[in-house]
Structures are given as structure tokens and as C-alpha cells.
């Protein structure tokens, strides 16, 4: 029962004051001059004022509210080490049991530290979870919080951000030991085939000195073993083997008594960048499509282009003296003998044999292809004539022989069944419609005995674009010189940029354009697998986890030539993925995750925050008054009020609140009804009686 008095005036307070203040002044003047009946007039006036002010007795029925106490449970991966999970579970159950004995506490249990599958972060963020638990609680009702953790918390705020006593119960054992390795500096990019400098450090929490063997692996292949001094920053020089993502891994052996070997490996992801690709473009004669190739290759920042056009063949004899010609002589020996291996790609654009190149040089070009070079033939009518380069020793490197036909008719270039799956032509803009949403061409060169893969067809379904492998090299043949129509926008144009660039980069062995390719990548704690193949089915992928377990993941077709699959994982580290005779490596989870940067349990991280709030931090494994299972001891729970001490030798305190909820209110007017009327009449009658005498 809560009694109180309130006023509910019959008139507004300003009007009531305007009415009563003059009367009070008159009554005071009467008292000053000691007039008869002055006291009675003052009493009657007071009774009238109280009647108009209407005093009311309120009887409130209130329900007391509970203080909210949060138990924040650390479920991060470092809590899986040793007996920490068992200690945590026992401590949480014990706290819930102790707090349940007090009716003034509302207990909220919140688990934190375990990242979502697609989350790249694995930090232990307990204070963010605590803030979420208290988001709908006013500060006056916060009784406090207790964190059950190994002490490795990564989002400790300032003391001013914490409300109520904060306690911490630390899992793990004292004097734990762990050895780990980490990169001190690791560039994100490196040039393929060039040395790349890195630094790393081996750390031992046990204070051990000496040296240790460090195994260096790149993309799963061990390349060296280095001797590193514990605690010192060590230098490392590696060579990036391939373009695209490369995984550099450092690993050390586990030592006896070490907590975990998860952080005995350090990972660096380095994107390999090839130096500018060198392309030699030789145009047999000026024509409409020559500038298309030139402009495309010059616009590619990754390509260094050398371009020659044969403007004056040897058979052209017009009597002009040599010293009066302003043409640049074609440096055939320098290009095709001395520096041929400097080029990543050689393009013959409508080129024909007219003794510009000695016949022996075609042998050099064929040998260049056989040993890993790339050759592209952009054929025009000259390829079907008597001076065709097919009639030279280059024939051993060509994927098809001309049959002498030059087809002059309109046709739409179309993708073949192979072309719809091949990475060079797959998904070309406009190819999904019939007829394709691009312009027609009007000339094509006929061939016979094609080799390799026909990815585009032209007039009468004849081969239009061939891609072939010769020895260690690659050859492409474009059997039309009409691609410039797409570049000029004729009938809407076509995807010449994408097509030409893909052809050139496939010939130069860009990994993204390989027909058979297996890649894997980590997305948070999800492993994504992508299989590029020319086959109709890819089959399942076999996965080997960091702990050595194996599992199969079915790959499903996402588009022609592409099969994908994904699986949620629980382990952080390197995964090996295999499909057929292809393998790939992927790192799942954050690289060198903060969660495993330091796994030794500690009281020091949370101690400043707990002491600032009057709380305490202690180990569960320490000897205590109340012992539980799993060799832990748990302090008692004590309700405290206001700013009283919130911790003791064997107890933790949580504050209670004085807040309550109003359930109902009973009103009793003091001057209401006959009682008020009688008191008012009595006062006025007494005043009148005294005045009448």
C-alpha cells in the first residue's frame, strides 16, 4: 500500500489564486489590527480554499520490477580447446541455478563469439552481445552481467560504456603454453616469376628461446624449409608461380604441452600479376579490319603491342630509290630469330607469303608454338590462294588447311555446342537469341580437315573459329576478316571486344579461360567450388578438411560449362578440393584469424573493465568455496543495493532495483460529499456567529 496526497483543483490554479489571495490579505490585515473574529475568518477562508483545491488521498498498488542480469557465454572456437567447453557449460548451469533462487532477478543468457557461416570475422565480440541483451532495459534495472570466457575478447570498450557491475569467469588453466607463427608483412600482390619479400615471426608464450624449422609452401607445394629464431622477425623471399590467387603457407611443428596447433600455420593470399603481355601483330596488307585488332590490343593495359603492316612487298618495283623511301624496314631477323621467345602471342592478320619472311623463319615460328608460344591466324581471301602461309613450313602449327573456297554470302556467326561451353565464347552478349543479336558477316574462308575445337560456325555451318593446342603452345584460327563490321556498329554491331580479347588471352594461357579448371574460395565459413569443364557432367568434388576428414559435395550445373557447389564448414584453414584429375586449394575463414592469434586464457584483458564497474574477474579452475563438477569452483551470488560493494572473496554481487509498475490507484477526496460540505458550513457558520455578537 502506497499512500499519498494530491490536489485536483475545481478551478485552475491562476484563477484560484486570483480569488483567494485578496481574501487572504484581508484576513491577514484583520489579524494585524486584532479585529474581532479575525481567526475565524482565516479558518473559514482556509476551509474554502481547501474545498476549491480539492485534496485527494491516493492509494497506489505497485508491483516491484526485477533487475536484469545477463550471462554472456563465449562460444568462440578458442573455447573448444581442452576442457574449456565443459567448464563453460558447468559454470553457466551453476550461475542459472544460483540466480534462480532470487525472485528479484531476471536472467538473460546470450551466447556470442560463433560467427555466421558467411561472416568473415571470427573475433570474440562479447560486449556487442551484452549491449544487445540490455538494449530494451533502462539503466536503473540493469543488475549486472557475468561473462564466461577464456578472456580473449576483442571488443572491450571504455569503462564509461558499461552499466552495472561486470564480472568475468575465466575458463582454461593457469600457466598455459602456446606457440604460433604469424606474418609481419605480406604484400597482397606480386609479379609472376619475380621474387617477393615477406617477413614473419615465431612466438612462444612459454618464453622459450632458440630456433625452429619453418616449412614454406605455395599453393600446397612445399618449396623450402627455413630456420627461424623464436621471437625475432625473419625475412622470407618467394617467387609467385602463377597469375591469380596464390596461397603462401608457413607452418611449424607442434611442441609438447601446446594448447593447439591451429595457429602453427600462417596464411598469406597473394594475387599474382603477370607482367605486360607482349604481342606481335603482323598485317599482311592494309584493310578495314586491321585497325580493329590494333585498337583492341592497344586499349588493353596488360598488353605491350608491336605492330607492323607490310605496305611495300619485295615484288613491288616502281624504281623509287631506297634512300628516298620513308618506310621502316621489317626487322625480320630481330623479331623472328633473336627475340621471338620474348613474345607471348604472334598474330598474322591477313598475312600471305611474299618472301618478306625467309622460308626458314616459318620453321622458327612453328618451333616457337611447339615450345609454348601462341599463334593466331586472322584469315582473309589470301589464305585460300597460292601464296597462303599454309603452303609454308608453318603448316605443322596450323589447325586446318584451306580448300580454296572463299564463301561470299551473308551469314550470322553462331556458337557451336562446344562454343556454348567454351570459356572463350560462352555467354557472349547476344548469343542466346536466334538469330543472334549481332550483325551479319559476308565472307568466310573454307577449310578442310579441321583440328582442335570448333567454337563458332558461319555460312552453311562451316567452321569459323578454331582453337587448338600444338605441343606446349596454342593456335587459333579466325576464318573471316569481317569482324570489323561489329566494331563499326553495322546492323547494331556485336561483341567484338569481348570475343577478340578472350581469344588473345586464351592463347596466352590466362587461367580464367582454361577449358578445364577447378577453383575454390572461402566465403566466411562457406567453401564455394566452381568447376569449368567441356563435359556434360562434372561429378562430385572430394574435399579434404584441415583436420584430414573427407567429404563429397555434388556439383550442379549453373550455366553451360559451369558447375558449382558449396558447403558450410566449421574448421578454419586450408581445404583441398579435387575433381577428376584437377585439384585446388582454398582457405576458409579469416586469414590469420584474431580468434587464434592468441589462445592462452587470460584475466588481464577484462580486468580493467570489471574493476571499473566494481566487478571481479577470476578463474573457474581456481580453488573456491563452492566446488562443482569438471574441476571448477563457482562463487556465490549475492543481491546488493545501490552503490554497495559488488564482489567479495567468494561471492559476486548483482544490484537490485527500486523500479515498480503501477497496477491500480484508489482515490478518496478529503473535501468531497457531505463531509466537505459540513466542514465548510461549520467554518462559515462559526464566522457568522462570531460576527453577529
Automatic annotation (TrEMBL):
The keyword Membrane applies. InterPro entries: Class_I_gatase-like. Keywords: Membrane, Transmembrane, Transmembrane helix. Coiled coil: none annotated. Gene3D superfamilies: 3.40.50.880. The chain crosses the membrane at residues 12-32, 39-58, 670-689. This is Glutamine amidotransferase domain-containing protein.
Amino acid at each position: 500500500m502506497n499512500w499519498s496526497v494530491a490536489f485536483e483543483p475545481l478551478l485552475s490554479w491562476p484563477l484560484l489564486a486570483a480569488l483567494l489571495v485578496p481574501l487572504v490579505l484581508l484576513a491577514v490585515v484583520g489579524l494585524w489590527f486584532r479585529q474581532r473574529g479575525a481567526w475565524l475568518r482565516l479558518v473559514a477562508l482556509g476551509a474554502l480554499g481547501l474545498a476549491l483545491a480539492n485534496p485527494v488521498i491516493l492509494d497506489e498498488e505497485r508491483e516491484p520490477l526485477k533487475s536484469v542480469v545477463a550471462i554472456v557465454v563465449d562460444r568462440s572456437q578458442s573455447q573448444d580447446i581442452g576442457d574449456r567447453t565443459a567448464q563453460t557449460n558447468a559454470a553457466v548451469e551453476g550461475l542459472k541455478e544460483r540466480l534462480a533462487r532470487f525472485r528479484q532477478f531476471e536472467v538473460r543468457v546470450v551466447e556470442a563469439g560463433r560467427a555466421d557461416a558467411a561472416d568473415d570475422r571470427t573475433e570474440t565480440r562479447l560486449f556487442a552481445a551484452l549491449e544487445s541483451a540490455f538494449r530494451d532495459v533502462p539503466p536503473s534495472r540493469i543488475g549486472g552481467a557475468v561473462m564466461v570466457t577464456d578472456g580473449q575478447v576483442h571488443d572491450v570498450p571504455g569503462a564509461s560504456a558499461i552499466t552495472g557491475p561486470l564480472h568475468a569467469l575465466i575458463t582454461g588453466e593457469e600457466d598455459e603454453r602456446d606457440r604460433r607463427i604469424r606474418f609481419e608483412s605480406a604484400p597482397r600482390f606480386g609479379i609472376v616469376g619475380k621474387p617477393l619479400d615477406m617477413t614473419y615471426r615465431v612466438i612462444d608464450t612459454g618464453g622459450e628461446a632458440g630456433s625452429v624449422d619453418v616449412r614454406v609452401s605455395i599453393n600446397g607445394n612445399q618449396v623450402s624449409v627455413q630456420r627461424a629464431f623464436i621471437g625475432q622477425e625473419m625475412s622470407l623471399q618467394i617467387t609467385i608461380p602463377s597469375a591469380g590467387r596464390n596461397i603462401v603457407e608457413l607452418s611449424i611443428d607442434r611442441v609438447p604441452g601446446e594448447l593447439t596447433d591451429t595457429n602453427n600455420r600462417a596464411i598469406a593470399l597473394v594475387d599474382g600479376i603477370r607482367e605486360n603481355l607482349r604481342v606481335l601483330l603482323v598485317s599482311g596488307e592494309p584493310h578495314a579490319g586491321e585497325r580493329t585488332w590494333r585498337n583492341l590490343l592497344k586499349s588493353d593495359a596488360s598488353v605491350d603491342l608491336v605492330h607492323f603492316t607490310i605496305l611495300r612487298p619485295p615484288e613491288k618495283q616502281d624504281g623509287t630509290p631506297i634512300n628516298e623511301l620513308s618506310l621502316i624496314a621489317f626487322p625480320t631477323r630481330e623479331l623472328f630469330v633473336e627475340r621471338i621467345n620474348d613474345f607471348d602471342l604472334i598474330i598474322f592478320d591477313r598475312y600471305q607469303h611474299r618472301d618478306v619472311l625467309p622460308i626458314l623463319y616459318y620453321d622458327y615460328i612453328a618451333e616457337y608454338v611447339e615450345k609454348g608460344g601462341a599463334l593466331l591466324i586472322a584469315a582473309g581471301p589470301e589464305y585460300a590462294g597460292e601464296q597462303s602461309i599454309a603452303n609454308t613450313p608453318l603448316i605443322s602449327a596450323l589447325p586446318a588447311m584451306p580448300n580454296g573456297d572463299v564463301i561470299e554470302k551473308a551469314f550470322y556467326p553462331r556458337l557451336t555446342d562446344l562454343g556454348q561451353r567454351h570459356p572463350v565464347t560462352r555467354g557472349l552478349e547476344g548469343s542466346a537469341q536466334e538469330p543472334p543479336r549481332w550483325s551479319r558477316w559476308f565472307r568466310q574462308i573454307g577449310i578442310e580437315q579441321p583440328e582442335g575445337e570448333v567454337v563458332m560456325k558461319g555460312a552453311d555451318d562451316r567452321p569459323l573459329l578454331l582453337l587448338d593446342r600444338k605441343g606446349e603452345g596454342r593456335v587459333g584460327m579466325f576464318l573471316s576478316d569481317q569482324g570489323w563490321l561489329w566494331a563499326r556498329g553495322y546492323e547494331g554491331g556485336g561483341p567484338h571486344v569481348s570475343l577478340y580479347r578472350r581469344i588473345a588471352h586464351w592463347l596466352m594461357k590466362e587461367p580464367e579461360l582454361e577449358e578445364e579448371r577447378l577453383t575454390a574460395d572461402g566465403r566466411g565459413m562457406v567453401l564455394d567450388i566452381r568447376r569449368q569443364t567441356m563435359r556434360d557432367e562434372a561429378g562430385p568434388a572430394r574435399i579434404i578438411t584441415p583436420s584430414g576428414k573427407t567429404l563429397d559435395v555434388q556439383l550442379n550445373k549453373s550455366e553451360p560449362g559451369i558447375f558449382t557447389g558449396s558447403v558450410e564448414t566449421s574448421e578454419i584453414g586450408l581445404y583441398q578440393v579435387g575433381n577428376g584429375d584437377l585439384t585446388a586449394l582454398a582457405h576458409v575463414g579469416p586469414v590469420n584469424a584474431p580468434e587464434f592469434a592468441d589462445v592462452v586464457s587470460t584475466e588481464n584483458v577484462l580486468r580493467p573493465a570489471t574493476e571499473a564497474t566494481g566487478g571481479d574477474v577470476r578463474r573457474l579452475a581456481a580453488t573456491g568455496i563452492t566446488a562443482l563438477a569438471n574441476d571448477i569452483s563457482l562463487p556465490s551470488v549475492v543481491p546488493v543495493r545501490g552503490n554497495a560493494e559488488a564482489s567479495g572473496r567468494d561471492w559476486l554481487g548483482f544490484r537490485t532495483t527500486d523500479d515498480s509498475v503501477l497496477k491500480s490507484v484508489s482515490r478518496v477526496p478529503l473535501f468531497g460529499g457531505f463531509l466537505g460540505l459540513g466542514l465548510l458550513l461549520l467554518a462559515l457558520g462559526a464566522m457568522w456567529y462570531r460576527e453577529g455578537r
